Amino acid sequence: MKTKIxxxxxxxxxxxxxxxxxxxxxxxxxxxxxxTTGGSTTGQTNTQEVITDFELHLSTLSGTNVTxxxxxxxxxxxxxxxxxxxxxxNQSDSVITLMANKTYTANIYLLDKTKxxxxxxxxxxxxxxxxxxxxxxxxNPTFALNQWTSVIGTSGVTVxxxxxxxxxxxxxxxxxxxxxTTTATGTNxxxxxxxxRHQPNGVKNGTYAPGDTDVEAPFKFxxx
Amino acid sequence: MFKxxxxxxxxxxxxxxxxxxxxxxxVLKGIVNDNDNNEHLSYAVVTLVNTGQSIEASEHGxxxxxxxxxGTYQLLIKHFGCRDTxxxxxLKKNRNITIKMPHSYxxxxxxxxxxxxxxxxxxxxxxxxxxxxxxxxKGATLGDQLKALNGVTTFNTGATISKPMINxxxxxxxxxxxxxxxxxxxxWGNEHAPEIDPFIASRLTLIKGSAxxxxxxxxxGGVVLVETPNLPDTASVTGELNLxxxxxxxxxxxxAYLQGAFDKLKYFSWRVQGTLKKSGNLKTPNYYLxxxxxxxxxxxxxxxxxxxxxxxxxxxxQFRSKIGIFSSAHIGNLTDLRAAFARAKPADSLAGFxxxxxxxxxxxxxxxxxxxxxxxxxxxSRLYANYAMQFNLRQExxxxxxxxxxxxxxxxxxxxxxxxxxSGELLWEHDNIKAxxxxxxxxxxxxxxxxxxxxxxxxxxNKTFGAFAMERFVKAHYxxxxxxxxxxxxxxxxxxxxxxxxxxxxxxxxxxxxxxxxYKHDSLLSITLNVANGWRAPAVNELYSDGLHHGVGAIERGxxxxxxxxxxxxxxxxxxxxxxxxxxxxxxxYWFTNFIYYTPAPRPELTIRGSFxxxxxxxxxxxxxxxxxxxxxxxxxxxxxKTKAMWLKGTNTETNAPLVFMPANRYEFSVLLxxxxxKVFKETYIEPIFNRxxxxxxxxxxxxxxxxxxAYELLGCNIGTTIYAHRQPFVxxxxxxxxxxxxxxxxxxxxxxxxxxxxxxxxxxxxxPLILYDKKIKV
Lengths: 224, 779
Prior knowledge:
The complex is a heterodimer of chains A (224) and B (779). With 224 residues, chain A is mainly beta. Chain A has one domain (53-223). Chain A has helices spanning 2-21, 121-127; strands at residues 53-62, 65-74, 85-88, 95-98, 103-112, 119-120, 132-136, 142-144, 147-152, 157-161, 176-180, 190-198, 212-223. In chain A, strands 1, 2, 3, 5, 6, 8, 9, 10 and 11 form a nine-stranded antiparallel beta sheet that branches. A four-stranded mixed beta sheet of chain A has the order 4-13-12-7, with no helix packed on it. Chain A is globular and about 65 Å long. Chain B has 779 residues and is mainly beta. Chain B folds into three domains: 7-108, Carboxypeptidase-like, regulatory domain (Immunoglobulin-like), CATH 2.60.40; 125-223, Ferric Hydroxamate Uptake Protein, Chain A, domain 1 (Beta Complex), CATH 2.170.130; 224-737 and 761-774, TonB-dependent receptor, beta-barrel domain (Maltoporin, Chain A, Beta Barrel), CATH 2.40.170.20. The longest helix of chain B has 9 residues, at 334-342. Classes of the chains: A mainly beta (224), B mainly beta (779). At the A-B interface, α1, α2 and β13 of A face β19, α6, β20, α7 and β23 of B.
């Protein structure tokens, strides 16, 4: 009798121990993780990867000098929070100005400025080139004469991809490209939405459709 | 709750055959006495089992059934504190009988388990799903199980995440009581389903209409009670085994419980319970949905100690689930969303079947520890004290790992919320002091929410306190109930603006009231009317949420200036029964001042990921009115026809525009065929079901990113039987849903933007009640 009661007591005690130990360890500090130095309004922590800055560097020869114009699309807290804004060296709106009958070298940089030091996401995009591709106005580039090119509507501008993802069936990434302009468009502005598509697990096939959008920068342009 | 006939009563009703050839003007009168002291017992409920007719004895124990036909009648007498008593009466002429109820609870035994779980008796409209009704839906989510109740719909995020909606209200406006404890998780998200293992429930009860006085001022929409079985009171070991297999998703669920009371160690009783669930990719009529698997491991246990005058119980439950989110439906910007609408099939539709759950997925843990104690403070009153601690972890993993290899290696959730809730309740309850029954109580709660990872809603500390009193005046043919409640809520939120920690504190306090009445003309007609008001302080996400809600693919913005929401509610319920015909109807109206809801901003917002729709929390005056009707007709005792209908209309009364995300009108028609029992197969039935859901045409202009889907019609069927091998029953149920593999999308499924709803599903269930040992029965 006595041993039975002892057994039962042990069982009850055992269950109570399970009850206590099964509880998850929790953090009892109601204060949220601290804000970062990136000017975030929302207290992002460093374990989150965000893209804050999109930069398009357009270089061309004017005379004998190379001039570079930088166009930016900035979202200091990443997606959500504060809306993204345009900016750059030459202007503060979304309009890219190109000169007629010129060839521009275009480089795209993606930065995560919530990190210290600033993390260059474009390097990681290049490393994972077979999962990423930039598109211009959602146009699927055509492959001819060993080159991938997109013709931007009726603007007379052609974008030629200059890089490759190094996959067995190589396709471009779009971090480096060439913009070729023809005639001036006058005051007409054309949209130029540059999107980075994330196309992992072998779905990248050179078209826009598969995957998701990681970056979408809705610029406009004018050819003078 | 004896006044509202439950499903058992329906079935009993079926066994009633009219004996028209005999005179039907006999009277059966009686008086209910206490067997020990021959005192008259007030307000016993006397049921004529044959007809389902049920009346309440008077204060002095008298009752009378009139217009009875000659025959043998089975009488079931229930009285609080007494054992249910059943007697057989042979009625050839008018009779006057005396019923001696065995023992009041003090003398009955040394154990008072009978009163452990007080029936929720109110003047409100109640609906129940008992064991038999639950047999038809076991293995489904809690939300989908509740859908069997008229007036309940769900807000879904695919087929695996469903939040119950009562009368068009969900989230904060409805309460779920998990074994008597208010479920406290991350209710704010539409894709946050209740973290409860449905297998713990032996019964689900729905209280329609505002139940704010009893359960908290915010319970304006209704309350769902998830009720566990009572712990046993005799030395025994019993249990139940449930096995469920479903074709769609190739799902398997096994759940079992064992409970018992000790022979030697008197007063102690126990229960252990556990559930395992695994399902894989679901299939729509035309394609598989990649990454829609679910894994669940849940367990609970309870230990009870019951003496003559008091009882105590400790209950622990743990819910763990990993839910895959259909990868084509995870966050996309407006460009992606529009492309998704234009597609006939979602991008990831090429996938085949798999049990693998990859990103994106949710990882959820919910723990509950409850300690409850009660003591009899007199012959007819009890004092209850409860304490509960809940811990809820919600982790959401985005579709893609970070590109940075070092970050990716950590495989951290992008969203990680942890909420800890302590709650306590002190409740004193009395019955039949004269004709009054009532309760008074105080409730308190302390809650902390913290997060790591991405910001969406702030960390907060929430303290609430409430006190209430309600009394019911009970007469044989009518009841009147009135209640009053005071609540206060103190909310401190913590979030950063630049590098400054903000910690705004808000205090809300207010009263709520209810007044209800029931008129019963024996059990053939009962009319219930309840009016109540309630209020709800704005919740933390409504005040401060700010960011991209990845689960929804939209930017959500709270408004720190939101004011308290007030609600007036009236609900009318009618239950009428005439011979083979039964009707149940409810009509309700909710009138809100400062109704808080979220509505899209005029234009989407640009982010570096593209543009996203913006939803702002706003408040307006609003009105929700609706009605649920159930009609039932027994053509023969083996054939029953049933129709259910639900109508609802939500309106913003300031603009007269419809409210967004309200359930569409729906209808159900079913035929219940009961087959003759054989030696082996008993309680065999076949029940074809036809469902129709109308198109929701009451939608505000230009609010939703896609128009509401068209109406749809579904065919299904339940087949059930109980096989007896020796004395051991095996309850088998086969259910087919969407039998015709219809392609459809539901307005209240967020995944309707991306994919069709699931196709045909065949579910086979086996329930085995077990009696391993019972001192009273030799096994």
